């Protein structure tokens, strides 16, 4: 009587083992394990606020294995990858890539792992602002003056990258413009070679107001004519007066030149030997960049006899 239960127990154990083996066989046949490669964003955790991680990849390639039905429904958001930068100092560092995955699957490979990167201190400094114009106003208009809201901006970022920043440039298009205007313009950070500095730096402010003032490219002005007299009158006469006809003249040219002109002088006119009233022709002195409304004038010389 006692031997029968033991016999039944042995048979039951054997049957259970066979059932498990059969289940595993069926599951492997119906839902076999498969592998898949996925590109997963890489998180940076526990990074100090005083440093920035440079050259950390945005993502890593991960290979996972699991039952086909689970792998088929697997999404990128189901997997997390990250590096823990707690306690690391400035300079070159290496960190292991950690993963968080659903149950029933396993990580076969992560690449790259570990990763090598650089921790750089965050610093700030000022760089000058420059305005660059593109296009051209109408032919009879020029830009007279440019003003902008700030001469410098503060740039913040990794020390190594910040050293490449040379200036902040505001680009303004003046094509066809002829009236004064003020415009909010974004700033672009350039290096010492005039090329854009990559991401990783912040400007404060990152835009500014630029005001442009236009004037005619040719301006006109009326000024006095002054005769340039040389030599000596005859011995028995004295000079009474010298008058020019006209006594004023219109000059034209760029504002920078015309603003400096208060009078126009004639070429030298000789008084040698004059003993009576005369009218002579006087040529105006030529000045580069200046146009006169006429090139010659009349000069009336009046004398009186000496007793």
TrEMBL record:
- InterPro entries (alphabetical): c-di-AMP_regulator, YbbR
The superkingdom of the source organism is Bacteria
Give the PANTHER family listed for this entry.
Answer: CDAA REGULATORY PROTEIN CDAR
Q: Name one Pfam family in it.
A: YbbR
Q: What is this protein called?
A: YbbR family protein
């Amino acid at each position: 009587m006692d031997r029968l239960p033991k016999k039944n127990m042995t048979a039951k154990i054997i049957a259970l083992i066979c059932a498990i083996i059969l289940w595993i066989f069926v599951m492997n046949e119906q839902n076999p394990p498969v592998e898949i490669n996925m590109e997963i964003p890489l998180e940076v955790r526990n990074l100090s606020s005083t440093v920035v991680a440079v050259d950390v990849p945005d993502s890593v390639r991960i290979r996972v294995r699991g039952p086909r039905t689970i792998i088929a429904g697997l999404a990128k958001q189901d997997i997390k990858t990250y590096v823990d930068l707690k306690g690391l100092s400035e300079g070159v560092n290496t960190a292991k890539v950690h993963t968080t995955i659903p149950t029933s699957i396993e990580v076969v490979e992560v690449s790259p792992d570990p990763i090598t990167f650089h921790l750089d201190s965050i610093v700030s400094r000022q760089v000058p602002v420059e305005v660059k114009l593109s296009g051209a106003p109408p032919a009879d208009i020029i830009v007279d003056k440019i003003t902008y809201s700030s001469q410098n901006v503060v740039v913040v970022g990794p020390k190594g990258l910040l050293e490449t920043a040379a200036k902040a440039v505001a680009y303004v298009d003046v094509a066809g413009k002829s009236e004064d205007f003020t415009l909010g313009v974004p700033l672009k950070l350039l290096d010492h070679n005039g090329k854009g500095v990559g991401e990783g730096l912040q400007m404060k402010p990152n835009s500014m107001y630029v005001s442009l003032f236009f004037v005619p490219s040719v301006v006109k002005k009326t000024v006095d004519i002054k005769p340039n007299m040389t030599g000596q009158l005859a011995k028995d006469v004295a000079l009474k007066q010298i008058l020019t006809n006209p006594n004023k003249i219109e000059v034209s040219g760029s504002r920078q030149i015309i603003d400096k002109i208060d009078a126009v002088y004639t070429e030298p006119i000789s008084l040698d030997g004059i003993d009576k009233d005369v009218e002579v022709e006087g040529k105006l002195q030529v000045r580069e960049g200046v146009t006169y409304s006429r090139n010659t004038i009349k000069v009336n010389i009046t004398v009186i006899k000496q007793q």
